[in-house]
């Protein structure tokens, strides 16, 4: 299958592209720079110049493809609204180009936050709060099942990780500890964060592309919920710095999310697709060290 992948050189796209190619798919990767184009080419894909705000580049990519995986997102936590709006317009553009063709459209969403409850594939997306717009965008993708699109959403936990490269939300904790000399957690640190190794996540995106029925929700969750304090302790041990509680404000806007309990499970996904996480856990990757400077 020829697959158009947005965010092809990003933290998740950079492992999804080789996963697809190894399975025999052809990849057209949306890129914004020469460096990103070189990375996609080196992985065996074909670069397509543009970005989420260049709607013509999205149309051009879809026109050449038999399926779409949408991974791109601005991730500017200090200015989320424009990032979410860009995602909304991109989804609408991709949807219009795919309508009625019966082709797969896999979108990267977020596991929902259900206070006092381990979220599952059966729970609705979180559509309020600072990331509520992303939940509404995921619902928009799922609703495309009624428009002749084989749409699915792979919900990602906030910590998509791999040793020595990416740690999701924990990247913020690591950077703060390196800067301040204190490995901090919010409140009493009992709030739980789900996680997945990005190599396991990449395999699930491929499975969704190949086999997900229209309107399917998948959870790319390996660890249901490590406490924030346990994550801070793992970081503090590696960096040899004290571990202390801190105000959510000390982490900026994203600190509001750090205060929330958001465990999640993937039993339905594992049973339905035969997906089993096999790569190191978040705690294992944190304890191993090798943090980026």
From TrEMBL:
Residues 3-213 form the NAD-dependent epimerase/dehydratase domain. This is SDR family oxidoreductase. It comes from the Bacteria. InterPro entries: Epimerase_deHydtase, NAD(P)-bd_dom_sf, NAD(P)-dependent_oxidoreduct. It holds the Pfam family Epimerase. Residues 114-137 are annotated as: Disordered. It comes from Streptomyces siamensis.
């Amino acid at each position: 299958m020829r697959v158009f992948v947005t965010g092809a050189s990003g933290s998740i796209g950079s492992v999804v592209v080789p996963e697809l190619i190894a399975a025999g798919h052809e990849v057209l990767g949306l890129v914004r720079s020469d460096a990103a184009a070189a990375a996609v080419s080196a992985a065996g894909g074909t670069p397509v110049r543009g970005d989420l705000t260049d709607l013509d580049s999205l149309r051009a990519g879809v026109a050449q493809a038999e399926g779409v995986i949408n991974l791109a997102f601005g991730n500017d936590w200090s200015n989320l609204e424009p990032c979410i709006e860009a995602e909304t317009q991109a989804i609408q553009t991709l949807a219009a180009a795919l309508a009625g063709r019966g082709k797969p459209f896999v979108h990267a969403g977020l596991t929902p936050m259900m206070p006092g409850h381990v979220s599952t594939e059966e729970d609705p997306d979180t559509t309020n709060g600072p990331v509520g717009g992303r939940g509404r965008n995921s619902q928009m993708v799922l609703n495309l099942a009624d428009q002749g699109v084989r749409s699915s959403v792979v919900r990602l936990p906030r910590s998509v990780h791999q040793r020595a490269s990416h740690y999701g939300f924990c990247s913020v904790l690591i950077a703060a500890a390196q800067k301040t000399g204190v490995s901090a957690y919010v409140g009493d640190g009992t709030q739980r964060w789900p996680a997945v190794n990005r190599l396991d996540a990449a395999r699930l995106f491929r499975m969704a592309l190949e086999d997900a029925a229209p309107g399917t929700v998948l959870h790319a969750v390996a660890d249901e919920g490590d406490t924030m304090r346990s994550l801070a302790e793992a970081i503090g041990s590696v960096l040899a710095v004290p571990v202390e509680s801190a105000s959510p404000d000390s982490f900026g806007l994203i600190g509001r999310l750090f205060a929330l309990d958001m465990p999640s499970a993937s039993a339905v996904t594992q049973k339905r697709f035969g997906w089993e996480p096999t790569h190191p856990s978040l705690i294992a990757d944190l304890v191993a060290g090798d943090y980026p400077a």
